[in-house]
Amino acid sequence: MGTSSSEHVDVPAYLARLGLEHEPPSLGALFRLHAAHVERVPYEDFEVQLGRVTSLDPAVSFGRIAAGRGGYCYHLNGAFSALLGALGYRVTRHPGGAQLPGDPAGIHLNHLPLTVSGLAETPEMSWFADVGLGDGIHEPLPLLEGEYKQGPLVFGMRASEVTPGGWRFDHDPQGSFVGMDFAPETAVMADFADKHVELSTAADSGFVRTLVLQRRDAEGVDSLRALTLSRLPGDKTVLESPALWWTAIEDVFGVPRGGFTGEEQDRLWRQAVSQHERHVAGGSEISPSA
């Protein structure tokens, strides 16, 4: 896997993946970049499901994104922060901790959040940017205490109670996790290496236990957990055939089936079926945590 990090990303190719033109740093441009990323680049754990521990190198994550894939927080925010830096934004990675139901809040390093500062329109204000929360924010939030509505979800920002000088993001009660705290210090990708291996391999990891894809837009969230496709707000549907399942993965989440070998496609389908059967039988479904 390795912990060395390259910040080089192909900016024109990345912008093409997001469907955007190059423009100088601004608050409006940051919002457009963020919204396009969560709409077009899915939160997904296919590599974990295939038994592979991926690199945390932002350049490697970008290569996967450019090929039509996604990842989870380390990959998505790692690559996105490299893009922002290449575009001239002042972006900072932070040590963070996502809180699942029943777990304590803390800087568990199971999440990598970002802040952006120094924008001409808001020179004294920093912004919380995070394209790696799955069903989280659609656009950046100001680092100001308050509630913020985006589509059907309402989020909160407040001072963290677990890390001095840090911030707490409170998720909507409809969301897949309780909230996330992050420290004011700067993080580097290597800080997350050990936790990344744990999340990719541990038997009790949500990424190991459940195949998941999520995609956010201005009106809500699309999610696939094992065989269950859901829309928030909206209904849930169980996809009971490989054809329906792969069609949803391609059409809803934009992940090309052709990016996997036939053997990998069969393995992913079989694992999703097994996970769904376990859930129906009463086994717990653990939400991913990064």
From TrEMBL:
GO terms for molecular function: acetyltransferase activity. Pfam families: Acetyltransf_2. Keywords: Transferase. Gene3D superfamilies: Arylamine N-acetyltransferase, Cysteine proteinases. Belongs to the arylamine N-acetyltransferase family. This is Arylamine N-acetyltransferase. The lineage of its organism: Bacteria, Bacillati, Actinomycetota, Actinomycetes, Pseudonocardiales.
